[in-house]
Amino acid sequence: MPIRQVDQVLIDVLNKVRACRFDEDNIRFINERAVHKSDISPSCLRLYATRKNVNKANSKEIKRLSGNPISISAHDSIYNGSTRKATSRALKEKRLLKELELKPDMPVMLIQNLRVSRGWVNGTLAKFREIDEENILLVKQA
Fold first, then answer.
1. Distances (CA, A) of 34 to 39, 57, 96, 121
2. Which of 101, 98, 99, 95 is nearest to 63 (CA)?
3. In terms of residue numbers, what domain contains 115?
4. What's the burial of 19, exposed, middle or buried (CB within 10 Å: 0-12/13-18/19+)?
5. 11-29: per-residue pLDDT in tens?
6. Element holding 137 (H helix, E strand)
7. Into how many domains does the chain fold?
8. pTM
9. In a domain, 27, yes or no
């Protein structure tokens, strides 16, 4: 299942930051919880502000994992009635990759809902296990 924050004080501070309505107390609250980068466990979830930073971190992490990478190329279709240019623009807006590299036991996070009724939603954490011609096997993390 996706991880949801339950600390209402933190939720309120984050909402104020998101809306650019924070004050000195909010800044102090955040700074009191600052952790030095060297003290963060490699297994901690990291959030990035840009796709560029995400790609940089993912490239670094995949090199750290053992095993050979498996490269998966996207097979995208033209939307019904759309041009190739319009389809390409739509895929770019959705942040979909043209190629994805995975390694066994690599952690992944869904960025779109796949099967809501089974809990495969945006934010779900899983580990990649294997792939065949039709399927990618992911195991949900507790």
1. 10, 20, 32, 29
2. 101
3. 41-140
4. exposed
5. 999 999 999 999 999 999 9
6. strand 136-140
7. 1
8. 0.62
9. no
